């Protein structure tokens, strides 16, 4: 008899503990409110345009969500997805707080986190955007000028060495058909780098040439050097013969 009483008491205590844990867990449960930008400006706590408030990973027993702007009801949603769209122009400029509350099947209420943002006018948003874009454009422009200026200043002074093309590889000039190195800092224009031939000075947008293309171009370069050498030797011989006519 004593064992039976102890068993009943133990079961009762265990049930009370489990119910208490479940109740405490439910009381501590919070809706996770998120803000999604559909179209407009958003950055550094400031927004302008069309946005959506939504509940992230809602509980399975959630039956209603009430969305609030500065404590005033925006809309009540009774079915998933629990979300509401709004435009910042529908509210005064300045700081606003967005929140939500949820109702579970058993009638329990859940609060959400609070999202605080500053609503801007369209002119203010454009001014903020310019403050971000202009420095980026200036930086990109400076890099592009460096990419063009460095090869322009140094391209003709660097001696060409066949077989050595550097990190950016070599290219073949479409005008003189000779190989040359592509400068690493040259602007990359997707289809190739903007480069200047070190032999004839022609500007072109060229991709990295294949080893076979460079090999063929190196042969043309070597052949051109031999022809120049032979021409120079013939001119020297002709000059010696002409000068010999005036010797006694």
Structural description of this entry:
- It is a single chain.
- The chain has 248 residues and is of the alpha+beta class.
- It has two domains: 30-120, Immunoglobulins (Immunoglobulin-like); 136-229, no CATH class.
- 38% of the residues lie in helices and 30% in strands.
- It has three helices and twelve strands.
- It has helices at 2-28, 122-154, 211-244, and strands at 32-43, 46-56, 62-69, 72-77, 83-87, 94-104, 109-111, 115-119, 170-172, 179-181, 193-196, 203-206.
- The strands form three sheets. Strands 1, 2, 3, 4, 5, 6, 7 and 8 form an eight-stranded mixed β-sheet that branches.
- A hairpin with a 6-residue loop joins strand 11 and strand 12.
- The longest helix is centred in the C-terminal third of the chain and has 34 residues, at 211-244.
